[in-house]
Amino acid sequence: MEDGERNWEDMEIDCLVNIFCKVGLDDLAVSLPLVCRSWSAAAGDALCWKALDFRDLDFMPWSSFSKAFTARFFVPRFSFSGFLKLAVRRSSGGAAELRLPQIASMEDLVLASNECPRLKILSLPKLTLDDEARIPDLIAKWKDLQRLEIESKPSNFFELAAEIAGNCRVFSDLAMPCSSIKKEDASAIATSLNKLRSLDLSRSYLPRAELLVILGECRGLERLSVKSCLGFEADEEVKGKAAAIRIFEHEGTKMEGDSGYCTDECDDLEVHVI
Q1: C-alpha span between 170 and 220 (Å, rounded)
Q2: Rounded distance, CA 205 to CA 253, Å?
């Protein structure tokens, strides 16, 4: 090494932490800690584990990450629950973002509700009917929750919306694509979630009447995505109601008769999606 040059391991820990905050959880867990002591210390810093995004990782037993994880922590087989516990422990209660993969269980979500009290962003996979029943009680624990992403509307959405309204005072963003929005669902949004700033119902069954209810009550919306929805067309009345919304995405919307679906068929579709 020439005079004046520095090794990576000589960097200040704060600088390493700022860099490592931008890498994936897989590298934080099994790759970076093996380089040197300073890298290991930085990779274990709670700030690096503030955003827990597990969605794009490969958890198959034969994946390179699963093999590296089992070797690194001397466990006989990979367990997502074990990885989640590690991530939650390293976050030291400061995790602000949690995005769970489809492999996650209700027990994993319960763990997160107990150990990650400061969540601001939560992304949930598709849920079973039994799991849906437990979601409102868990959501109520995250007082700082601002954004919820959920794959298709849960069957108890009215209850969920009420819990959010009563407990999550800064909640502002809801993403619930591929849903069947009925009269009671539009009412729940208009009544309990009328302070939303962002709402994503793209690729949903959304009748015109329900859309107008939402537009009439959610007057603080800054972004509304209803792209590729079935049940309405963006006519002059709809555009007029949405005129104050800064970003109104409505491309690809169709009336029911344009696709061959009827209301009952969309309801049946929702059951399978959930």
Answers
A1: 13
A2: 10
With CA atoms as reference, report the closest residue to 83 among 21, 42, 23, 25: 25
Q: How far apart are CA 91 and CA 7, in angstroms?
A: 28
Radius of gyration in angstroms for the set of CA atoms belonging to the chain, rounded to a whole number: 22
Secondary structure of 160-213 as H, E, C letters: HHHHHHHHCCCCCEEECCCCECCHHHHHHHHHHCCCCCEEECCCCECCHHHHHH
Whether the model pTM is above 0.90? no
Which tokens hold the place of 5? Answer: 């040059």
Sort strands 121-124 and 97-99 into parallel, antiparallel or unpaired.
Answer: parallel
Instruction: Report the alpha-carbon distance of residue 244 to residue 242 in Å, rounded.
Output: 6
Which tens digit of pLDDT belongs to each residue from 95-123? 999 999 999 999 999 999 999 999 999 99
Cβ(57)–Cβ(87) under 8 Å?
A: no
Exposure string over 231-269, b if 16+ CB within 10 A, otherwise e: bbebeeebeebbeebeebbbeebeebeeeebeeeebeeb
Amino acid at 73: F
Q: How many residues does the chain have?
A: 274
pLDDT tens profile 8-41: 666 778 888 888 999 999 999 999 888 888 889 9
